[in-house]
Design a protein that fits this description.
- Strands 1, 2, 3, 4, 5, 6, 7 and 8 form an eight-stranded mixed sheet that branches.
- This protein is an alpha/beta fold and about 250 residues long.
- The termini are far apart.
- It is globular, with a radius of gyration of 18 Å.
- It is built from nine helices and eight strands.
- It is about 35% helix and about 25% strand.
């Protein structure tokens, strides 16, 4: 870690030292993650800037997810709950964290090695930035055989990562506008960012890939009708929030 008190250090260097001294918590939400959890965790431990704590929320798994997490010993703290969905698992993890900076990861996704470091640097550029998101790269899980691959979308282009796994938050952002809406299984980040915008929170987007999102046969994103309904519900909430805030419709 850089020392901001070193002679000749610039103000920017000092601020970066303070940023690196911030406590970063990572919340991993998992339900039946035996196939991919270990790979996700290895991507976390390969980070240039590792999280200071990792909270794994087991959302009612019926496989050996907890046993897999236990192999990592005290590097991970596992909490268990009855299955309530990803937004509820993220909220539970948030209550268990002690960091002033929060990141999230799904058990089937991967972090590029500089993912946390890049988002942290961007977040700390100015005190007014409440959250930062980067780019998401989607990929088809390599273990799938050809018949299964034919039913899945091909590797997709990189997209702006307006999803929890590609975002880093200041804890104060959740204190200001609350956690994720647990009734929205698929559109909760649309709703959260809508509330953040209505509440005047500032964000920054960076143009670097910070999340590799796995496409596989069990992804919720393939339940198209349910997903579309969740997004519609979330968008309706955003419109209502803007009306209340007096913003553009």
């Amino acid at each position: 870690m850089a020392d901001g008190t070193e002679a000749g250090a610039s103000l920017i260097d000092s601020m970066r030292a303070l940023a690196d001294g911030s406590r970063l918590s990572l919340v991993i939400a998992v339900h039946n993650g035996r196939n991919y959890l270990a790979e996700a965790l290895e991507s976390v431990f390969a980070q240039a800037r590792r999280p200071d704590e990792i909270i794994l929320v087991d959302d009612g798994s019926t496989d050996d997810t907890v046993a897999i997490a236990a192999r990592y010993g005290q590097r991970i703290r596992t909490v268990r709950q009855a299955q309530a969905g990803t937004p509820a698992a993220r909220n539970r993890g948030l209550t268990e964290t002690s960091g002033d900076l929060i990141a999230f990861l799904d058990h089937d996704d991967l972090l590029p090695p500089d993912s946390l470091a890049l988002r942290l640097e961007a977040l700390m550029e100015h005190d007014s930035i409440a959250y930062v998101f980067g780019v998401v790269e989607r990929f088809v899980s390599p273990e799938l055989e050809l018949p299964s691959r034919s039913r899945l979308p091909a590797n997709a282009p990189e997209i702006a990562g307006r999803i929890a796994g590609a975002t880093m938050f200041r804890r104060q952002a959740f204190a200001a506008i609350g956690g994720f809406t647990e009734t929205l299984r698929g559109g909760y980040m649309i709703d959260w960012m809508g509330r953040a915008e209505a509440g005047g929170l500032c964000y920054r987007a960076i143009d670097t890939c910070v999340l590799r999102r796995r496409i596989h046969a069990d992804n919720y994103v393939h339940d198209i009708k349910a997903l579309e309904q969740n997004y519609l519900d979330a968008l309706r909430m955003v419109v209502r929030q803007r009306k209340v805030a007096g913003g553009p419709q």
